[in-house]
Design brief:
The protein is mainly alpha-helical and 450 residues long. Helix content is 76%, strand content 1%. The structure holds tryptophan (TRP). Its main location: membrane.
């Protein structure tokens, strides 16, 4: 039943190209913007502890599961399940994933647009000469405008569309190889600098010394779970899709581990950059979605060559966001191309346009028009709906699929782990630990257990 299209699927150029593309997908606004917002709102240290445990015992095992499914099936998020388990309902996870890709990219494009605005702000000097260094005022008045943020969002989406049209290998793989290491180096330099600004002690205490009483809040666990899935690009078939462009000779476990470890390292480094500055400049760590945009300009303002550093930082964050956005779009594109036999160009243009329009309410909800759902502005609502509901639910089904839908011997073989200690720990994680963990966090949150 292999169609022409499937036998001719695109492939990564190299193993390292695959790892970098997955890393490019993982490292994005999630590590800097969303991580600092979520960690800040959930009290810091205790959140981070739970986050790290979830990455290790739920996140990385589910990354392995997605890679295994994708490489085995050589198909997209929905097709993978239909091919490997015809007639069974597992493919629902794929549909959730495609839906999540629309939701996430819609608001992701808005925030990435803010990042672009800040990059140009440093290039042109408008962020260097902000009156009285009121960066909070600058940010709030910018996102409260009607047209300007939407124009930036449009530019960002157009760039994403442009890359996905060209195809996976030449566009994304090439850019990632240069830009991701640069981002890492700049983050480290800035983090060290931020530690000299006077808020180091408070910032580090906030991040790394847990306030145990916070562990009583059920929302903390859901927020950490959602953040782990969001940051690892997990639970919506992005890594299934990327794994499907991999040939059988490539080994999966080291790839999963490197992606998990490096993504987490980037998030923690961003935290070490942001939180000392939050305290040094007297901001509120629970300040919400604007934290990064209100904090970092203060750091650049104090720094020698701050305008250059600011431009470089927001450029690299933009690049990181772009490689993540590309993976979000690719999930939907790969599915629609197969399902409706669309060409790549047609699929990318149609889906990209729909997602752009879907993002407009998120943009407007930041001050121009009060669009709220369940007491949250539309952007935050979409963010939490996708991160805290769709992704963990998708991850739950994916874990169950490998853990219970596959024979253990097949799963061990197809994941390259083999019948080893690590292999058996992995099976145990996807069979029991991850599903039970995710379910308990859901039930705890709605007050059924705990
Ligand atoms: N992981 C990306 C980030 O941290 C966002 C992202 C890209 C994503 N692809 C995804 C999130 C797939 C969930 C699923 O910014």
């Amino acid at each position: 039943m292999l169609s022409q299209q499937e036998t001719k699927r695109e492939q990564w150029g190299s193993r390292i190209g695959f790892i970098l593309a997955c890393l490019g997908s993982a490292v994005g606004l999630g590590n800097v913007w969303r991580f600092s917002t979520t960690a800040g709102e959930n009290g810091g240290g205790a959140f981070i502890l739970v986050y790290l445990l979830i990455i290790l015992f739920i996140g990385i095992p589910v990354v392995m599961a997605e890679f295994t499914i994708g490489r085995k099936s050589q198909s997209d998020a929905v097709g993978s399940f239909q091919k490997l388990a015809p007639g069974k309902p597992w493919f629902i996870a794929g549909f959730l994933g495609v839906a999540a890709s629309f939701i996430i990219l819609s608001f992701y494009g808005v925030v990435a647009g803010w990042v672009m605005k800040y990059f140009f702000g440093y290039l042109t000097g408008s962020l260097v000469n902000v009156p009285e260094n009121d960066f909070t005022g600058y940010f709030v008045s910018f996102i409260g405008k009607t047209a300007e943020p939407i124009i930036w969002q449009f530019i960002f989406m157009a760039l994403t569309v442009g890359i996905v049209v060209v195809g996976v290998k030449k566009g994304i793989e090439a850019a990632n190889k240069v830009l991701m290491p640069l981002l890492g180096v700049l983050l480290i330099i800035l983090a060290i600098y931020s530690l000299t600004l006077g808020g180091a002690k408070e910032g580090l205490t906030f991040l790394f010394s847990p306030d145990w009483s916070k562990l009583a809040d059920p929302h903390l666990y859901l927020a950490a779970l959602g953040q782990a899935f969001f940051s690892l690009s997990l639970g919506m078939g992005a890594l299934i899709t990327y794994g499907s462009y991999l040939s059988k000779e490539n080994k999966l476990p080291t790839a999963a581990l490197s992606v998990g470890a490096l993504d987490t390292l980037v998030a923690l480094t961003a935290g070490i950059l942001i939180f000392p500055a939050v305290f040094a400049f007297g901001l509120d760590p629970a300040g919400g979605a604007g934290l990064v945009f209100m904090t970092l300009p203060n750091v650049f303002d104090q720094m020698p060559l701050g305008a250059v550093a600011g431009a470089a930082f927001f450029f690299l964050l933009f690049a990181a966001a772009l490689t993540s956005a590309v993976s979000l779009l690719e999930v939907a594109v790969a599915y629609f191309m197969r399902k409706f036999s669309w060409g790549r160009k047609q699929a990318v243009l149609i889906i990209g346009s729909i997602i752009f329009v879907l993002g407009i309410p998120s943009s407007l909800s930041q001050g121009a028009v009060p669009i709220t759902i369940m007491g949250k502005d539309f952007l935050t609502f979409m963010d939490e709906l996708s991160g805290n509901v769709f992704l963990p639910l998708g991850g739950l089904i994916i874990a169950l699929f490998i853990g219970w839908g596959w024979k253990k011997t097949d799963a061990l073989r197809d994941s390259d782990l083999g019948d080893t200690l690590i292999g058996n720990i992995w099976i145990w994680c996807v069979r029991i630990l991850a599903p039970v963990g995710i379910l308990l966090i859901f039930l705890n949150k709605i007050g059924i257990v705990g």
